[in-house]
């Protein structure tokens, strides 16, 4: 197992995140505090080179930090992942102007980074057409369309990576769209089952003019393909952290000392093995050429989350239904419902594996 050269979460950070976890899951009022909290505890620089303002290491260190946060609050971890995923795409871009414009502000948490790439992932899987169209104008592009579901779009300011279809056809481009652009309209927060403080909304683009320096990639598909292992690896950390917390709670509960003990121990061992496989492969070029093994790991982790929550429920018994006795279980139960649908969803992954890697066991 990889170890990081620095502490991940301080005791202060753990207490801060855990204390707010229930409120962030059930209420939107504290949504504006999540990103500043991550920045205050200096988490946004994890896994980035020191020369770029980071703490050193690589994407595996970011994955480890997201995992630890997810074990305390999936809402906080999801905001962390959204911010770090945008930074990851900005890091992978060959366009220096975009990095110079947003890099430092993202690491400080002054601006929120979002990845509105659900539509392009579905487009590349031939599920739906691109929903944002771009036509060239003087020194940039004019965009029209909609991003129906984007998280970490703080009302205090955000920048979102979006794939757009050039006028007249051709491969999609990836652009960064900053809040405040005329014609870019953020909806009220979506009415989510949980994770309500994740600043999740729809974005409508009505003749939005973006400058040339907002371009992240002229040829979107190879750019997204190269960045995908890190993007998905950090996304998998959400599942690892949630499953780890549920299994730890099950192991600590008296109900797990009997027949459940061996099942909890076995699930913990399997989770550790899958995490080790993920950390061992996320930087390998083979997952750029063939992402099927990573898709399979993501699906296995989603299954482990459900198994872990069931084990926690069985170990806790009826107390799990008493919110004044076991509030963390109810929160984790709601959080677990998000894991199968975060893009790429399990349904999309199953479709991709069936088409391109039917031999991969899931």
Describe the structure.
The protein is α+β, with helices and mostly antiparallel strands. The chain folds into 3 domains: 102 residues, Acyl-CoA dehydrogenase/oxidase, N-terminal domain (Butyryl-Coa Dehydrogenase, subunit A, domain 1); 104 residues, Butyryl-CoA Dehydrogenase, subunit A, domain 2; 137 residues, Butyryl-CoA Dehydrogenase, subunit A, domain 3. The protein contains 12 helices and 8 strands. Strands 1, 2, 3, 4, 5, 6, 7 and 8 form an 8-stranded mixed sheet that branches. A hairpin with a 2-residue loop joins strand 2 and strand 3.
Helices and strands in order:
Elements: H1 11-26, H2 31-40, H3 59-70, H4 74-92, H5 96-108, E1 112-116, H6 118-124, E2 132-137, E3 140-150, E4 158-166, E5 173-178, E6 184-186, E7 201-211, E8 215-217, H7 220-252, H8 260-281, H9 286-289, H10 292-316, H11 327-336, H12 346-356
Parallel strand pairs: 1-4, 2-4
Antiparallel strand pairs: 2-3, 3-7, 4-5, 5-8, 6-7
Helix pairs in contact: 1-2, 1-11, 3-4, 3-7, 4-5, 4-7, 7-8, 7-10, 8-10, 10-11, 10-12
- What is the count of helical runs? 12
Radius of gyration (CA) equals: 20 Å
Q: Low-confidence spans: pLDDT under 50, at least 5 residues?
A: 358-362
Q: What share of the residues does DSSP label as strand, in percent?
A: 5-15%
Architecture of the largest domain in CATH? Up-down Bundle
Distance between the termini: 23 Å
* Largest sheet properties: 8 strands, mixed
Q: Which term fits the overall shape?
A: globular
Mean pLDDT: 91
Reading the helices and strands in chain order gives HHHHHEHEEEEEEEHHHHHH
Output the structural class: alpha+beta
What is the CATH superfamily of the largest domain?
Butyryl-CoA Dehydrogenase, subunit A, domain 3
> How many DSSP-defined strands?
8
CATH T-level topology of the largest domain: Butyryl-CoA Dehydrogenase, subunit A, domain 3
- Give the CATH class of the largest domain: Mainly Alpha
